Each structure stands twice: as C-alpha cells, then as structure tokens.
C-alpha cells in the first residue's frame, strides 16, 4: 500500500539570509526558494533535498510516495556486513535519519508531471552523501520495476557520491541490480529519463544514472566516475578547465542535454509528451503527393541538379524540423567520445505521428556551415545516429532520416576514430531495426555517408536532390584525371531523381516549388511531410516480421541482372 507524506520544501528556514556558495553574495531565502534554489546573481544551483526536487517537478498534490513499501526493514540497526569502521554503521544511519528526516538517501513514488503520469525518484545528498547501499538500490529497482509493470515512464534525479562503503560488496552489487532494472525498461519499451545533478559520481554514475533512454544533466553539475581529488592524486597532473562539469560531458557526448533548473520541468514535460503513445493523433497534412512514375518527372541537366542540390539557401534538416515536424526534442552525443553537430536527431511528431528524426545538418551561413563541417559527419555523428535508432527501436518509434551530405568526413581524426566501422554499423543496424524507416534525400546524397541514413523501407528523394556512389568531381578526377569534367561525370553516373526512380533505388520523388526548394521552403516542407506521412501510414500496416523481410529483399535484389535494366515506366 502506498503511503502519502506531505512534500514540504525545506530550503533551510523560511526567512533570513544565506551565503551563495558560487559568488558569496547574501541571498534572501524566500527569493532563493522562488528562484528554485538558483542564485539570481551568478546562476549557482544550490543543492536540493529529495523532497524539494519532487516539489519542483511534480504537479501540486500529485505525488504518492512508495519509499516506505520498498524499504520497511532498513534504517536504524541495519548493518549487513557488521561494518568494522570507527563509527558503527547503525549509528551513522540513525544520525543521517535524524538530520534529514528521511529513512534513506532516496525518495520515490508516482506523480503527475504536466499531466503525464510518471514514477518519480529523487536522491538526497544530505543522507550520507547520497551513497547507494542496499536500500537505495532496492528503491531505484522497485521504482523501475513498478514503471515497467505499469508501463509508466520513469524519471530518476540523482545526487550521489557513489556506492556506500559501509555495506562492502553488497553495495557494489547494487550497480548490477539497478542496471538490470534499467535494462528491463529498455526491453519492454518503457521510457526512462535520468537527470544527473550535482554531484553524481562512482557507483551511481556507473550504473542506473547513465542508462536512461535520455540522460540530462543539470547546469553546472559535477559528474564523473572517479572524483577529481582521486584523479588528481592518481595522474598527478593539472586537470583541464571545466573538467567533469555537465557542459564537459555534453561536449564529450555523454549526455543528451544540459538544462538549467528552471528549464527542467518544461523539458521533461516535452519529452514525456512527444514519446507518449496515447497522445498520437494522426491528421492529414497539406502538400503535393510524391511522384512515383518516371514519365511524370521533368528531365533536367544533371549538373544543373547538382548545383541546385548544393544551393546555400536550400532548406536543411533543422529547417524541415521547424516547418514539417512538431515538438522536436534534440538528443545529443554518441555516449562514447563526442557530439557531432553534422548529425542532428531526436523524437518529434509529423502529422501527429510519433517518430525519431535523424538527419545531416549543413546550415546556411558561413559560421553554421563551418560549425557543422558542411554536413560531413565524423564517426561520432554515425554513432549518435545508431544510438538514436536503438532508442527508436526500444520505444517503437518509426525512424525518419533526412539525408543531405557531400559524404562522410575524410580526415585523419575521422579515420583514427573508426569512420568505416561507424558507417558500417549504422547500415547494419538499419537492416535489422524492428520499426519502419523512411529516408528522404533532401539535397546531396553523398556515398556511404548518405547510405548510413538511407537503408530504409521507403527511400524518397526531392526533385532536385541527387544520390551517388561518389561526387561528380571525385569521379572525374579519378577516371579522367580532371575535376573540370564533373558535369560530364554527373551525366554519366545517373544520379538524378528520374534516373534513380527508374533504377528502383528510390520509391518516390517529392516535388519542389518551381526554381528549387530554396525559393519556397514552406511549400517544400509541406510536400516532404505529405510524402513521409503517406509512407509511414503504408508501413504502419505491415506486420513487424514482414517489414524486416521486405527490407532485406529490397537490398538483396540490387544488382541482380534482371533488376539492372532501367525501368521504362
Ligand atoms: Zn551566486
């Protein structure tokens, strides 16, 4: 049975003043509480108790606590290994309980968040440094199991120094216990979101905290495996500026986003809503349907098409995300070494349908094009794409890919970090993904770097896009020793929409406004949405096993001699 306890924010007293640990300014407590515990002067995020955190995130009056059910017998007197330290473990627990008014370093239960039901779990750093012993492991596991059983999204807010030493190897085992509970959510397709706050270290960061479908970090939080003091003593060198901050983790691909406290509840709400299966309301979209017959397409000089596909004002993925999709939430990082701005992705809706969007990003201004490396992704970009495919597969989201790249980045660092393997893994994952995949070549479809996002059930192409095994310049340079012959190569390679429709490489051509997509991006986006929605609806009717075997057959058939003749349509 659930027990309810009042959630009373306890930011140390009602009136009075306290010193900001960030800028040493004196802060009026009432004002600090109104600012969610964030210093208005320097932006320092003061530490919250578990109940303050829950009060900030849950809809008022909605929290129903379950902590008591999960840990009835822990607390004072619990000492599973008869810890022989200087202070009796039972005494330490009693003192922590006295200080915090909590039974343990975690509080959990069910709650509403912007009207969406969640299982909400928050850790309390004041209780023995938020360390994870058996009781904390039990609560996190019970929360995840309840979420799995009731198919309710799990939100976990962490604040921890790591595993609790006083429980020896039993504490270490909590990493495995909680990690397998998180695995259960992935297997059963129940959304999990981890929010890492200051500080999150050791056994907590190296288990459930890093295993959500989405991992967010609160601005300014320190997060890592080993604490900075331990690292400093071990490596005996100066640690880099900003080491182990939330921002450092974002830059190195470990978290999806860094969120200031005031933005946390709104972002959680957006993520819950965009993933929510019941909030799917398919609606018809405007736009001109795709062309499926070669005869209905204009024949243009392929070199002219290449120039249009590369036009600096041609809409790129983020333009389409704004015009054709709703509720896009960007997810970042490959969870390995970095985040690549040349690939963007995240859950969104199109015509009311839930999808995962993954696309190459080029930008328009010189600054944007340099920042996105002109749409040429590094291995991190393809690893991010593959991670988002896994996310989509776990949660049953169809994948929509928008392809616009001159090719994967050819460079020393990209080679060193495994460009070929990153692309290959992406293509292979696409071929086994148990959800529909629709790819649209919106501009340049350059070689393997394009195919990594185009091993799909339906491959569509904009009228002025092109798709090729090599750039026309590259082909001319290799075969004819002169890049000046690129227009000739463009004609020879059969890279335009009518030619590829004839070859059966693409299934439909998305019409563009006269003069090209850049002359009317909104119209181009409507036409793209029309084609994507039509393809998604066709594929939604196909049973999972047929989907995979048909996709397999599609790519198995390319290059058999019967299929090699150009369809006359
Ligand atoms: Zn301050």
UniProtKB/TrEMBL annotation:
<protein>
    <recommendedName>
        <fullName>Multifunctional fusion protein</fullName>
        <ecNumber>2.1.3.15</ecNumber>
    </recommendedName>
</protein>
<keyword id="KW-0547">Nucleotide-binding</keyword>
<dbReference type="InterPro" id="IPR041010">
    <property type="entry name" value="Znf-ACC"/>
</dbReference>
<keyword id="KW-0808">Transferase</keyword>
<comment type="function">
    <text>Component of the acetyl coenzyme A carboxylase (ACC) complex. First, biotin carboxylase catalyzes the carboxylation of biotin on its carrier protein (BCCP) and then the CO(2) group is transferred by the carboxyltransferase to acetyl-CoA to form malonyl-CoA.</text>
</comment>
<keyword id="KW-0862">Zinc</keyword>
<keyword id="KW-0275">Fatty acid biosynthesis</keyword>
<comment type="subunit">
    <text>Acetyl-CoA carboxylase is a heterotetramer composed of biotin carboxyl carrier protein (AccB), biotin carboxylase (AccC) and two subunits of ACCase subunit beta/alpha.</text>
</comment>
<dbReference type="InterPro" id="IPR029045">
    <property type="entry name" value="ClpP/crotonase-like_dom_sf"/>
</dbReference>
<dbReference type="InterPro" id="IPR001095">
    <property type="entry name" value="Acetyl_CoA_COase_a_su"/>
</dbReference>
<feature type="domain" description="CoA carboxyltransferase C-terminal">
    <location>
        <begin position="289"/>
        <end position="538"/>
    </location>
</feature>
<feature type="zinc finger region" description="C4-type">
    <location>
        <begin position="20"/>
        <end position="42"/>
    </location>
</feature>
<comment type="similarity">
    <text>In the N-terminal section; belongs to the AccD/PCCB family.</text>
</comment>
<keyword id="KW-0863">Zinc-finger</keyword>
<dbReference type="InterPro" id="IPR011763">
    <property type="entry name" value="COA_CT_C"/>
</dbReference>
<comment type="similarity">
    <text>Belongs to the AccA family.</text>
</comment>
<dbReference type="Pfam" id="PF17848">
    <property type="entry name" value="Zn_ribbon_ACC"/>
</dbReference>
<feature type="binding site">
    <location>
        <position position="20"/>
    </location>
    <ligand>
        <name>Zn(2+)</name>
    </ligand>
</feature>
<keyword id="KW-0443">Lipid metabolism</keyword>
<comment type="pathway">
    <text>Lipid metabolism; malonyl-CoA biosynthesis; malonyl-CoA from acetyl-CoA: step 1/1.</text>
</comment>
<dbReference type="InterPro" id="IPR000438">
    <property type="entry name" value="Acetyl_CoA_COase_Trfase_b_su"/>
</dbReference>
<keyword id="KW-0963">Cytoplasm</keyword>
<comment type="function">
    <text>Component of the acetyl coenzyme A carboxylase (ACC) complex. Biotin carboxylase (BC) catalyzes the carboxylation of biotin on its carrier protein (BCCP) and then the CO(2) group is transferred by the transcarboxylase to acetyl-CoA to form malonyl-CoA.</text>
</comment>
<feature type="binding site">
    <location>
        <position position="23"/>
    </location>
    <ligand>
        <name>Zn(2+)</name>
    </ligand>
</feature>
<keyword id="KW-0276">Fatty acid metabolism</keyword>
<dbReference type="Pfam" id="PF03255">
    <property type="entry name" value="ACCA"/>
</dbReference>
<keyword id="KW-0479">Metal-binding</keyword>
<keyword id="KW-0444">Lipid biosynthesis</keyword>
<feature type="binding site">
    <location>
        <position position="39"/>
    </location>
    <ligand>
        <name>Zn(2+)</name>
    </ligand>
</feature>
<keyword id="KW-0067">ATP-binding</keyword>
<feature type="domain" description="CoA carboxyltransferase N-terminal">
    <location>
        <begin position="16"/>
        <end position="290"/>
    </location>
</feature>
<comment type="subunit">
    <text>Acetyl-CoA carboxylase is a heterohexamer composed of biotin carboxyl carrier protein (AccB), biotin carboxylase (AccC) and two subunits each of ACCase subunit alpha (AccA) and ACCase subunit beta (AccD).</text>
</comment>
<feature type="binding site">
    <location>
        <position position="42"/>
    </location>
    <ligand>
        <name>Zn(2+)</name>
    </ligand>
</feature>
<dbReference type="GO" id="GO:0003989">
    <property type="term" value="F:acetyl-CoA carboxylase activity"/>
</dbReference>
<keyword id="KW-0436">Ligase</keyword>
<dbReference type="InterPro" id="IPR011762">
    <property type="entry name" value="COA_CT_N"/>
</dbReference>
């Amino acid at each position: 049975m659930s027990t309810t306890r009042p959630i009373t924010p306890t930011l140390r007293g009602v009136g009075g003043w306290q010193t900001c640990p960030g800028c040493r300014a004196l802060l009026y407590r009432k004002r600090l509480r109104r600012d969610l515990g964030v210093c208005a002067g320097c932006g320092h995020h003061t530490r919250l108790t578990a109940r303050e955190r829950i009060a900030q995130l849950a809809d008022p009056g909605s929290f129903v606590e379950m902590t008591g059910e999960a840990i009835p017998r822990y607390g004072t007197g619990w000492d599973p290994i008869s810890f022989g330290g200087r202070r009796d473990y039972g005494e330490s627990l009693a003192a922590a309980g006295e200080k915090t008014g909590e039974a343990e370093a975690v509080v959990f239960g069910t709650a509403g968040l912007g009207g969406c039901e969640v299982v909400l779990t928050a850790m309390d750093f004041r209780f023995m440094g938020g360390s994870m012993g058996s009781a904390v492991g039990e609560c996190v596991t019970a929360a995840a199991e309840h979420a799995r059983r009731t198919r309710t999204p799990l939100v976990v807010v962490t604040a921890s120094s790591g595993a609790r030493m006083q429980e020896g190897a039993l504490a270490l085992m909590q990493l495995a216990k909680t990690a397998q509970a998180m695995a259960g959510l992935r297997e059963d397709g129940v959304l999990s979101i981890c929010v890492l706050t200051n500080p999150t270290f050791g056994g907590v960061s190296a288990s459930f905290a890093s295993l959500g479908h989405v991992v967010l970090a609160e601005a300014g939080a320190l997060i890592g495996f080993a604490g900075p003091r331990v690292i400093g003593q071990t490596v005996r060198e100066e640690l880099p500026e900003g080491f182990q901050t939330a921002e450092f983790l974002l830059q190195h691909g470990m978290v999806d986003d860094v969120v200031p406290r005031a933005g946390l509840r709104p972002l959680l709400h957006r993520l819950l809503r965009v993933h929510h299966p019941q909030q799917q309301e398919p609606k018809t979209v405007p736009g001109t349907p795709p062309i499926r017959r070669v005869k209905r397409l204009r024949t243009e000089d392929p070199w002219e098409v290449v120039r249009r596909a590369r036009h600096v004002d041609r809409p790129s993925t983020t333009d389409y995300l704004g015009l054709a999709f709703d509720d896009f939430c960007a997810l970042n990082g490959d969870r390995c070494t970095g985040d690549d701005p040349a690939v963007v992705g995240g859950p969104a809706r199109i015509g009311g349908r839930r999808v995962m969007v993954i696309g190459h990003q080029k930008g328009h201004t010189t600054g944007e094009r340099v920042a996105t490396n002109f749409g040429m992704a590094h291995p991190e970009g393809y690893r991010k794409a593959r991670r988002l495919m896994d996310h989509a597969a776990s949660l049953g989201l169809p994948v929509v890919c928008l392809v616009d790249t001159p090719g994967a980045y050819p460079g020393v660092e990209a080679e060193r970090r495994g460009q070929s393997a990153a692309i290959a893994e992406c293509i292979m994952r696409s071929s086994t993904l148990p959800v529909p995949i629709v790819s649209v070549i919106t501009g340049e479809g350059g070689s393997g770097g394009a195919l990594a996002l185009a091993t799909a059930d339906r491959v569509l192409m904009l009228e002025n896009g092109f798709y090729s095994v090599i750039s026309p310049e590259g082909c001319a340079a290799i075969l004819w020793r002169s890049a000046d012959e690129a227009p000739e190569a463009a004609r020879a390679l059969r890279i335009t929409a009518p030619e590829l429709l004839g070859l059966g490489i693409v299934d439909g051509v998305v019409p563009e406004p006269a003069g090209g997509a850049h002359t009317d991006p909104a119209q181009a986006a409507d036409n793209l949405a029309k084609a994507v929605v039509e393809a998604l609806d066709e594929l939604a009717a196909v049973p999972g096993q047929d989907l995979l075997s048909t996709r397999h057959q599609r790519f198995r058939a390319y290059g058999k001699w019967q299929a090699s003749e150009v369809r006359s349509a």
